[in-house]
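Input:
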Amino acid sequence: MTRRAEPFPLRVYYEDTDFSGAVYHARYLHFFERGRTEALRALGIDQSRLFAAAGGPQLFVVRRMTIEYHRPARMDDLLLVETTVAAITGARIAMRQRLLRDGNTIAEAELELGFLVRGRPARVPAEIAAALALITKG
Amino acid sequence: MTRRAEPFPLRVYYEDTDFSGAVYHARYLHFFERGRTEALRALGIDQSRLFAAAGGPQLFVVRRMTIEYHRPARMDDLLLVETTVAAITGARIAMRQRLLRDGNTIAEAELELGFLVRGRPARVPAEIAAALALITKG
Amino acid sequence: MTRRAEPFPLRVYYEDTDFSGAVYHARYLHFFERGRTEALRALGIDQSRLFAAAGGPQLFVVRRMTIEYHRPARMDDLLLVETTVAAITGARIAMRQRLLRDGNTIAEAELELGFLVRGRPARVPAEIAAALALITKG
Amino acid sequence: MTRRAEPFPLRVYYEDTDFSGAVYHARYLHFFERGRTEALRALGIDQSRLFAAAGGPQLFVVRRMTIEYHRPARMDDLLLVETTVAAITGARIAMRQRLLRDGNTIAEAELELGFLVRGRPARVPAEIAAALALITKG
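Output:
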């Protein structure tokens, strides 16, 4: 099955903008990260619980990210974050994300995430891999 | 009439936390600011439109703020921001805000805002003052 | 002896500004926090070492802060942070900080800090209190 | 001539970290941006002056960025940002940046910047191109 995570809506606030009048370029990474957190949450994956896991902290980390900026976002904009898993291989997860405003692409990202257990790269646990497979575009 | 702005819900994300495990103390100001922006929006006051006003930029600025931190907020917390206007006098607006989690106060703020037109202190326009009066606690 | 911590210089970057053209009001808390961190470091107090202490994490937390905004800071500004300890009483430290540009006060803060050991309020350890006494204004 | 901009030193503060204990992944973009701003400043290019240019705002924008995260940076780390121009072609500038700690690479970035005049893509002005050529790796 190919399912996309429900797009996640967010609003642009004062804090997100810079003196050029547009959203500061690093803030898009916050937006994408909120989108990933909500996509994981919708799949039943709670990052604060993973971090507090009995066997030691488990967490996702960004290894590599390419971001393309197509249009500036601005104060008060209402945006949507789309999150798709492209592939899961061992300790690596490939994701694609898009930030949209009124159907137009504001920014796009390709990411490679790693999974860490007690600070070391580890295979993505089976139940997490199975959950992510639900939003994997085949 | 005494009416409070609808409490504004927000989620704590990775970006909001610091290495101590709790939310970074400056982020609470972001949360309060989002609460004010949404309280204004609910009253029909759009800050990006004010800033683009024909007669030159109009904006609210924080003059003075006292913030009390009662309990740490943490990753994944769901919080509510309450915003009340305490008084409006000429170019100054006094506000009170609370940040709540499950009915418990996380942080409280008392603010004095100014209103600027083309960079200069100015009286709060009558229609804005009238709108703010709707969430003024008498 | 009354000694002030060496003022700490910092530069305003894109990230610090918002669409109004000035520095975002929450960023001043970052500037003050950097100033406190550098004042502590100059006194031999290393916060990452405190957090990794053998007996469990030790850290300073902000309990209460009043900040007054006098003038806007802007992109490329070179600012100075002044940090003074006003009093140390048990688990509480009162501090005063000023942010200056060319000798003019941009913002001022009064803070009450707490000290936590393993997440609980604790007396400021004697050697930290002694170090802070060096920048206490009597 | 092939010259590199002087590496720019910066310190990691509380604000830069997240609850995982390391620097939040979006903060590296702030560090790189500070490095670019200081590289430009060293070449006599002042971004706040460009933005206030008589003929309308001139600014650099990030069009595309690939960032690789090699090692986590942590609270109190002292880092260096290296900035090199790879190529300038019309309205596009290709840059490479590295973030180093004690000679080890923390993160690397490849960027494509655009130049905007009054919000529209424009050729990089000759004197800016000439200045950037000084830190272009041929």
